[in-house]
């Protein structure tokens, strides 16, 4: 018989366990009850799950650094900006980037993203079925990203292959050999750099009203961003801004398909959608953990952490902490106080949170307006991946008109 997860005897938690992927909430609740500070099975690295401990850690970049060097390299040649650098330099980049991702900017972008969502739905609504990810949840964030950057929509397929080449190279290489996939990642990395090199040259010659031009013209302390700075920002935007929204959309729709009462409430009253998006972000928390490196020896809740150890702040578990969220185990679209950590916390809190929220709200509004009554195809059950929580297959059916 396999060990319980978490295992209170050994104070370990298996972050790649099948139950944690399928249905993480009960595992998180057991962690709170049995070992809110634990060590990860296999790597032995510290795992922190209490809301208070997580928020404190993420807000203390001097003690818990994001500079992890090539450990998190993912085909990059340098650290990605701003995620893999610490304040005070990180703060300077955020000051420059934040205005381009503000709530106001996203309101301006909303009509065109709504039209993109609606055009995707047009393609399959009359058929009465779709494969949610490839038909909707994967292309929509990519359309939004291209529009935000001012890049041609015809590059959608290219972007999807670049993103997959980094995040899941095995899809492109059709191999499970680690060396083959590492090489493919590096090659994809070069293609990403080459793509954006061309865009930078183009915007230098012919400036436009778009994010890429603004990056080319931006300055920190009176100095223009270097070519490498811009490349390192763009690389991160591809990795951070596409799969996260796809995963969240898939989790939300899978939850609603499995809970028809909640789905009917949303379809009948779309004004509930913004709250539902927040509550489902808390409940599902697709980016389940964020990593940091301890810069000195420290103790959290009785767990001794050594300088240099990689610490996982389990934001998925923090979002199920009863001390912060009364009745945390219930999905409540009327929850009044919802300070969830699904976008992280502290200086590295998600740069794209306003964009993500707008995309999710618009997608949910358009979807429920056009397809209010849907279910998972009979005989099929959604399968969730470990690591980032995402539904790997979500075939949906609804009454065709
Ligand atoms: C629902 C979708 C999303 C989720 C759940 C999400 C989640 C997160 C989380 C948890 C972090 C903190 C990482 C850390 O502390 O190390 C983060 C950072 C970041 N996110 Fe998002 N994200 C989403 C969408 C986006 C989008 C659409 C973009 C941009 C196009 C984006 C860009 C970034 C960037 C650049 C950072 C690094 C910020 C920094 O280090 O200063 N994210 N995201």
Notes on the structure:
By secondary structure, the protein is an alpha+beta fold. It has one domain: Orthogonal Bundle (Cytochrome p450). It has helices spanning 18-22, 24-34, 51-58, 89-97, 103-124, 132-137, 139-149, 156-167, 169-173, 178-205, 211-217, 227-241, 243-258, 260-268, 273-284, 315-318, 353-370, and strands spanning 12-13, 37-40, 46-48, 64-65, 129-131, 219-220, 223-224, 290-294, 298-300, 303-305, 310-313, 375-376, 383-384, 391-393, 395-397. The strands form five sheets. It has a six-stranded mixed beta sheet, covered by helices on one side. It has a three-stranded antiparallel beta sheet with strand order 5-15-12. A two-stranded antiparallel sheet has the order 6-7. Strand 2 (37-40) and strand 3 form a beta hairpin. Helix 8 packs antiparallel against helix 10 (178-205). The structure holds protoporphyrin IX containing FE. Residues 66, 82-83, 90, 94, 145, 236-237, 240-241, 244-245, 248, 286-287, 290, 342-344, 348, 350-352, 355-356 line the site of protoporphyrin IX containing FE.
Mean pLDDT: 94
The CATH H-level homologous superfamily: Cytochrome P450
Termini Cα gap: 50 Å
Counting H and I runs of at least 4 residues, what is the number of helices? 17
Secondary structural class = alpha+beta
Bound molecules: protoporphyrin IX containing FE
> In the CATH hierarchy, what is the class?
Mainly Alpha
Strand content of the residues, in percent?
5-15%
Count up the domains.
1
The low-pLDDT segments are: none
Largest sheet: 6 strands, mixed
What is the helix fraction of residues, given as a range?
40-55%
E-strand count: 15
CATH fold group? Cytochrome p450
